Amino acid sequence: MLRGKTAVVTGATRGIGLGIAEALAGRGANIVLNGLGDEHETRALVERLRSTHGVDVVHSAADMSRPDEIERMVTDASERFGTLDILVNNAGIQHVSPVESFPVDKWNQIVAINLTAAFHTTRLCLPGMRARQWGRIVNIASAHGLVASPYKSAYVAAKHGLIGLTKTVALETARDGVTCNAVCPGYVLTELVERQIDDQAVSHGIAREEVIERVILERQPSKRFVKVSEVAEFCAYLCGNDASSITGAQLSIDGGWVAQ
Ligand code: NAD
């Protein structure tokens, strides 16, 4: 279904991004797998995706907080693949702290990786998509792109901003065969959330299971984590031709969180 197309997925060395890369590779897309991590593990991951799905996969260690590295990633990938048809802006980090004591460097880093990186990848990939009159941009926002929680000022601000960017890009590309959508997951059990569970267990002085039930899943009516595969399959659908009329949307996969 996506054979011959190339997808750039940022933050794809683990978690949701890796799930999305696998779902797109499973549909035949070549993958530019961006993300940080151990070199040997990443090489093994690239090999596994190549051999399992029979697609071309390259790794890019570009730091999404660095515009120069983002630019190099897009230039190198364009030289290798010729076309970059699908862009999934997934790289993201979290930091939890009251706003008045929120570390300034953490604020800047979260805004750079969770929001500004998507501006850079989008502006660099769009000309090629427009020229071919086909493109898919999927921005991984969050339920926190639609509603807030205390102590997550930078993350909530960046994710709300990412949804604003999504809508603007969708309007600017609506007649060019390009779609741009934001996907808003609720809690998915990845390293990003594991770290919050550990921190909350320490700060509340309660067991891990209790943190999951009473703190983390408190806002998620389904009372279960969203699965990586559920987010990944939905993103792959958005990248197909059947989704060509879905653009500028904020699409929740959150077990009912923002319905409240
Ligand atoms: P994760 O921590 O498991 O993975 C994050 C990925 O981003 C990793 O591959 C990491 O290497 C990469 N990354 C981090 N900093 C980077 C940088 N500076 N440059 C390049 N890559 C970098 O996180 P996850 O839970 O899979 O989150 C993925 C996305 O989904 C994030 O944008 C996150 O905000 C969003 N999200 C997650 C949840 C959740 O509950 N896990 C919910 C809603 C939205």
Sum this structure up briefly.
With 260 residues, the chain is an alpha/beta fold.
State the low-pLDDT regions, or none.
none
- Calculate the terminal CA-CA distance, rounded to whole Å: 37 Å
CATH class of the largest domain reads: Alpha Beta
* Rg over alpha carbons: 18 Å
Q: List each distinct ligand once.
A: nicotinamide-adenine-dinucleotide
Molecular structure report:
This protein is of the alpha/beta class. The chain has 2 domains: 6-187 and 227-253, NAD(P)-binding Rossmann-like Domain (Rossmann fold, 3-Layer(aba) Sandwich), CATH 3.40.50; 189-225, no CATH class. It has 8 helices and 7 strands, in the order βαβαβαβαβαβαααβ. The protein has helices at 15-26, 39-53, 67-81, 104-132, 153-173, 191-204, 208-216, 228-238; strands at 6-9, 30-34, 57-60, 86-89, 135-140, 178-185, 250-253. Strands 3-2-1-4-5-6-7 form a 7-stranded parallel sheet, with helices on both faces. Helix 4 links the parallel strand 4 and strand 5. Helix 3 (67-81) runs parallel beside helix 4 (104-132), helix 4 packs parallel to helix 5 (153-173) and helix 6 (191-204) packs across helix 7 (208-216). The longest helix is centred in the middle third of the chain and has 29 residues, at 104-132. The mean pLDDT is 97. Nicotinamide-adenine-dinucleotide binds at residues 11-17, 34-37, 63-65, 90-93, 113-114, 140, 142, 185, 187-188, 190-193.
